[in-house]
Amino acid sequence: LVPAPQGRERRVQRRRVRRQRVLGQRVGARRRRAAVIMTVTVRRVIAHLNSSELVVRFQRACGLYPAAREKLNGHARSPGEQQPVRNGTTHITHTGKHENSCSSAGYEVRNWPLYLLFVVSATLGNEVFYISFLPCIHWNLDPFLCRRLVNMWAVVMYIGQVMKDVLKLPRPTAPPVVKLEWRVDAEYGLPSTHAMAATAISFTLLLSAPERVQFQFELGLVLAVVLSGLVCLSRLYTGMHSALDVICGILISALILGISYPHWKTLDYLQLNSPISPILTLLLPLYLCYKYPELDHYSTTREDTTIILGASAGCSVGYWANQQLGVTFEPAGPFPVTLGPVTMLGIARGMARFCVGLVILVLTRQTVRSISLRLLCWNYGVALDDVEARKRKEIEVPLKYSTYSAIGLVNTVLVCRIFMLLELL
Q1: 233-271 pLDDT, tens per residue?
Q2: In which domain, by residue range, is 120 found?
Q3: Which of 46, 73, 163, 265 is deepest in the core (most CB within 10 A)?
Q4: Do 160 and 233 belong to one domain?
Q5: Catalytic residue from among 94, 98, 241, 297
Q6: Are residues 231 and 161 in contact, defined by beta-carbon separation less than 8 angstroms?
Q7: Which of 48, 91, 94, 194 is an active site residue?
């Protein structure tokens, strides 16, 4: 027989084990319940941020509304009706809807200052803006800063464009959303590459400028936040992206900046001094363009990506060539330099450099594009005016890549030398 005290200890121990087991089960159930609640909450938040209704509320708050039913100018027939048109004319607006009014506007603006602000802000994220803004940094400020900006611009845009066509998440639906841009409507939505580019460009310039120029960092931070914020909000205003698209674009761009920032100086050195730098920077982007994800319909994403990578590759080769030739056109040290006072002569010379440089780049684009297009059409046996043939990968990629890599090369190597001949530097 087991002594009484020992039996009591065993019973107490068994009760303790049972209590611990029950307590563990309760804790596990609470954790599972909390995980379920958290998952449901996150899904609801994501669905809310991705909803078209949130974009609609933002547009209405900013004074952008769909066009009200307009006064008819006659009895134009609607689609499918057989009665003749009397004193009105039917037409199709840019939204694809048949109307019989005098105006084809698909939206109504009730707050013009915000409309102008966001439309202008939206242009700050377009490829055309960057292809003119970045050379202006090179010609009028510092090629070092331009090189950093071009590198980060190419990286974030390629990652963003590929993610769009891999995830294949739709843009906000119209209606109820009012859309102000239609060229890129065939593209997918997440992430917003406008938000990615604006964030990357603004904060790359902010992080790189202290090495070269003396300025108040706090003021630069405010400008970076305001400019990137305006571009991001403009994507909601124009109806092209949901809040989720924009937030993901900002976070992805911030992640890329955070990972790459410690290695910028090493990459600068390799880009300028490595003997394989020009070969790598020409062939790798071209390979990435050919390996761009295929879609079941034509989209402008591959074209835009090829333009960006081509311009970046041409600039990279040009910077390497300038380094080997010993003429980089960078300001004389010691760094960081102090910016001189703004004078009318300085403004005039800057405007002259911008205008002359832009004319040279436009002429380069037209010349190289014409030659490349003729060679490609001859090689593949297609007509020069066959627009659909230009959308084929074997024509589109080499055409855009050769054109814009030539623009990047001319921008970095030739333009500044012409400035020296014209005594603009």
Answers
A1: 999 998 889 999 999 999 999 999 999 999 999 999 999
A2: 29-66+111-273
A3: 163
A4: yes
A5: 241
A6: no
A7: 194
